[in-house]
Design goal:
With about 300 residues, the chain is an alpha/beta fold. The protein has helices at about 5-25, 45-60, 100-110, 130-135, 260, 265-280; strands spanning about 30-40, 65-70, 90, 115-120, 150-155, 160-165, 175, 180-185, 200-205, 205-210, 215-225, 235-245, 245-250. The strands form three sheets. A nine-stranded mixed beta sheet has the order 2-1-3-4-13-12-11-8-9. A two-stranded antiparallel ribbon has the order 5-6. A two-stranded antiparallel ribbon has the order 7-10. Strand 12 (about 235-245) and strand 13 (about 245-250) form a beta hairpin. The chain is globular and about 50 Å long. This is ThuA-like domain-containing protein.
């Protein structure tokens, strides 16, 4: 065999190896079924974001993804009654009008019985008066949230611990969009295992001053919200793992804009979070191009 052919074969195998490493996972006999809910959101890129996240999940080989879209804001919501029981995971890209009571009850039953939930960015603004939903997401913002909603939750550098702060004040704010460092707080959780302790996230809103029940919540990562960017001056929860009944929830506050959702850090944690809520474990390899503390990466 000539040297040229050998070189081509080596290059081909190298490329295949890189692809397999980036997306390698233990593929289940049957893919896990995911339902993305959208239809109302205060973010203009909702529909595009839904399709991006659908693609991110499907490319792992672990998931098949359907999308259900609610009526538009202000329209009759009584027809919105998806069958959650057909799915392993529900991903919420929704922030809008209340769902019908029957739909709320069906969703609560789904999660209590072991269904997985992924909550993305403004989905934690939704349903301020739905008690069960707020327990699922741990903390949320806006829509009238205040001290009656529950405490603020943040990491105190001096005390070296998470603080539940009950002082009065609004729930939910953010400063100017900017790149920021995401800092791992639980390196042993399946979602975070193998990720850098610190990594640079692409330009995004950094949610701060979120508050809520803050029960059964494991803060996986935080980000410092700098005062000079009109932030809180606190280490704010960015990635969270929660439980509600037998169900697991992954809550990410990242993903304000299309460019934010193209960050390899956002993509990877979304994929790993979805696998964890579906199975309780993560089999996906960390991609070679995952961001570092000094170098962000995106698609």
């Amino acid at each position: 065999m000539g040297r040229f052919k050998i070189t081509l074969i080596v290059l081909f195998l190298s490329v295949i190896g890189t692809i397999n490493h980036s997306f390698s996972a233990t593929i289940p006999k049957k893919p896990y079924k995911v339902l993305i809910v959208d239809g109302q959101n205060n973010h203009r890129n909702m529909a595009e974001g839904t399709q991006m996240m659908k693609g991110y999940l499907e490319e792992t080989g672990l998931f098949t993804v359907d999308v259900t879209t609610t009526p538009k804001k202000g329209e009759n919501m009584s027809s919105f009654q998806p069958d959650f029981s057909k799915y392993d995971v529900v991903l919420s890209n929704f922030n809008g009008d209340s769902w019908p009571d029957k739909t709320n009850e069906a969703f609560e039953k789904f999660v209590k019985n072991g269904g997985g939930v992924v909550v993305v960015h403004a989905a934690d603004n939704a349903f301020p008066n739905w008690v069960a939903y707020n327990k699922m997401i741990g903390i949320g913002g806006w829509e009238g949230r205040n001290e009656k909603s529950g405490p603020y939750l943040y990491y105190d550098d001096q005390k070296k611990e998470f603080v539940k702060d009950t002082r009065p004040g609004v729930g939910g704010s953010h400063g100017h969009q900017h790149e920021f460092i995401v800092k791992t707080r639980n390196k042993n959780h399946p979602i975070m295992k193998g990720l850098p302790i610190e990594w640079l996230h692409q330009k995004d809103e950094l949610y701060d001053r979120l508050r809520g029940p803050a029960e059964n919540v494991d803060v996986l990562a935080t980000a410092y919200s700098p005062v000079e960017q009109n932030g809180s001056g606190r280490n704010e929860p960015i990635l969270m793992a929660l439980t509600y009944g037998k169900g697991r929830i992954f809550h990410t506050t990242l993903g304000h804009e299309t460019y934010s959702q193209k960050c390899i850090g956002f993509i990877t944690t979304l994929q790993r979070g979805a696998e964890w809520v579906a199975t309780g474990k993560v089999t996906q390899a960390v991609p070679r191009n995952f961001p570092t503390a000094t170098q962000g990466t995106s698609r």
